[in-house]
Specification:
The chain is of the alpha+beta class. About 40% of the residues lie in helices and about 20% in strands. This is DUF4268 domain-containing protein. GO terms for molecular function: nucleic acid binding.
């Protein structure tokens, strides 16, 4: 840190000092400074903290006391631990203990703790005590404390303050951040220039740059957890739906899905008599579908079968009772012929109707396709077509 001399247009380095050599102590000085100027712990984002207690010892079955207790603008409790020239080895353990002690404080208890603090300050200065409730309403910028969220589960924060941090402390803080525990380290350094003393308070963990990164990572992790949860939810729904659907199919006249097991996938395949060309049921959030999927590993075979079925389109659709959607998909190996219905698929109350629709239309589709597929299958076997032959035949 440098001191600017505008008259001489020069800067001069300030002398770095230790708190001990200046006669400053943790409790009488550093703690007092931060209590009366909590904005020293606000970095570029200009965060506001409200000190609600000093040397708080309101823990059951222990005489331990934390240095400063604060609230942030979100109503989260902030445990502040000060260690002057050296962080020591136990500051993390102390802060975590205090956070655990504070975690079960109710909103009413927090308000009471703050009111005791205000009463004590008023007594020291011989003034009437302010209202904790009124101060909190103003600080949190809310209409009333009834709907205020104060000290919610897993929201407690840690702030460590020291002139020097041991490696075991910084490593532990960084490790804790991976588990969503909000912990900041502030480095405080006293400087001297003649008779003037200065204090620099700098957040070193997380750095302002890494804070944005960590926020982004937390958001990404939340997104991934949400996606995982949604995926598990869908898997459970699909498994349940197919179990009900297959049970209903087993009691119907449609036998193509006999001996098929339910899965977590959104499709369920059954043999059509042609290799790699199954009938398919599709269960989606917004639609259900019956169809024939031509997905043989040989694209030429799919095209061969599709073209010959398309040539019989009028008869197939007449037998099915509806117009089908024909998807040759020339840029892909697979081809599809399908019939679709829009539904609210994830509403379980709709499932019985959806399943009956599937049974009815898969029965019709299998009957409409049965003879054309038998004939095409014979053609494939009789000609024993190679991939090139099938392409030529499909073009005929």
């Amino acid at each position: 840190m440098f001191k600017i001399n505008p008259t001489q247009n020069r800067i001069a380095p300030l002398e770095i000092k230790r708190f001990g050599e200046l006669g400053f102590t943790e409790r009488k000085h550093l703690q007092e400074w931060l209590e009366n100027c909590p904005q020293a712990l606000a970095q570029g984002d200009g965060e506001e903290l409200l000190i609600i207690q000093k040397e708080f010892d309101g823990f059951d079955d222990t005489r331990e006391r934390l240095d400063l207790l604060a609230l942030d603008k979100e109503g989260n409790l902030v445990i502040i631990e000060n260690k002057l020239d050296d962080s020591g080895r136990d500051v993390i353990w102390q802060a975590l203990k205090y956070a655990s002690y504070c975690a079960n404080l109710s909103k009413a208890q927090v308000i009471e703790i703050y009111q005791r603090y205000l009463n004590q300050k008023a007594h020291e200065f011989g003034q009437p005590a302010a209202s904790a409730a009124d101060n909190l309403i103003e600080f949190l910028e809310i209409d009333g404390l009834e709907a205020a969220q104060i000290n919610r589960i897993k929201t407690q924060r840690l702030i460590l303050v020291a002139a020097r941090y041991r490696k075991e402390i910084t490593n532990t803080v960084l490790w804790l951040s991976q588990f969503g525990i909000a912990c900041q380290c502030f480095k405080v350094t006293p400087y001297q220039s003649g008779d003037e003393l200065f204090l620099n308070c700098e957040q070193i963990i997380p750095t302002p740059e890494s804070s944005d990164f960590m926020i982004g990572m937390v958001a990404k992790e939340d997104e991934e957890k949400s996606a995982d949860s949604e995926q598990k939810h869908r898997h459970t729904l699909r498994q349940d739906f197919w179990e009900q659907a297959l049970e209903a199919f087993s009691q119907s006249n449609c036998s193509v899905y006999n001996n098929i097991s339910p899965t977590k996938d959104h499709w369920l395949s059954a043999g059509s008599g042609l290799s790699g060309m199954p009938y398919q049921l599709i269960f989606g959030k917004n639609e259900i579908r019956v169809g024939l999927s031509l997905q043989n590993s040989q694209a030429a075979a799919n095209s061969f079968v599709f073209e010959r079925l398309a040539a019989k389109r009028d008869g197939i659709e007449a037998a099915f009772g509806h117009s089908l959607v024909w998807l040759p998909m020339p840029n892909k190996k697979a081809c599809r012929i399908q019939y679709t219905k829009d539904v609210d698929g994830y509403d379980r109350s709709n499932w019985p109707e959806m399943i009956q629709w599937m049974i009815q239309h898969m029965t019709r589709l299998e009957q409409a396709m049965r003879e054309p597929l038998k004939l095409i299958n014979k053609q494939l076997k009789q000609k024993n077509l190679s991939a090139d032959d099938m392409l030529e035949s499909a073009a005929d």
